[in-house]
Write a structure and sequence with these properties.
By secondary structure, this protein is mostly helical. It has a two-stranded antiparallel sheet. The longest helix has 35 residues. The radius of gyration is 17 Å and the shape is elongated. The model has no long low-confidence stretch (mean pLDDT 93).
Length: 153
């Protein structure tokens, strides 16, 4: 399923969804958490991106596993090290994106009708910002290491 798209390796195609949607989730979630007057206008974007970004990261991870098994299973030397460095960021990125998506969804739910009160919403907002920073860090590391693995041959 995550191997090819129209005869091309899926990973270079699928990864673009993760590279675009994850930073968008980071930005919109932070805006939602820190600027309450924007919440009504951005709730739909936070909700959609909270679901789409982790799914895109998961698809990128799985397609990367397929690409490695199909074409780079025996890669050694410098290329093997670069692939391993890139691969090492996949699970932390997936976990942080899923965490950010989950907490962002809870924040949207909590801020609608002030369900958890101000202290609860403030804690969720702070957690959202922290998870957004972690997610941004890992999406940068994954993207940078992937680009270096491909372009610094």
């Amino acid at each position: 399923m995550f191997d090819q798209v129209l005869g091309l390796p899926a990973h270079p195609l699928v990864v673009h969804f993760a590279v675009v949607l994850t930073p968008m989730l980071v930005a919109v979630a932070v805006a939602y958490a820190l600027v309450p007057r924007w919440r009504a206008a951005t709730a739909w974007a936070v909700t959609l991106l909270s679901i789409a970004a982790p799914v895109a990261v998961f698809a990128a991870w799985q397609s990367g596993q397929s690409l490695k098994a199909a074409r780079f299973a025996t890669a050694g030397g410098e290329l093997g090290q670069r692939i391993s460095a890139h691969e090492a960021h996949a699970v932390p990125l997936l976990l942080s994106a899923a965490g950010l998506g989950s907490v962002s969804l809870v924040l949207v739910y909590a801020s609608r009708g002030d369900r958890f009160g101000r202290p609860g919403t403030a804690v969720l907002s702070a957690l959202t910002v922290v998870l957004a920073a972690v997610t941004a860090y890992y999406v940068f590391l994954a993207g940078d290491s992937g680009a270096r693995a491909v372009w610094e041959l």
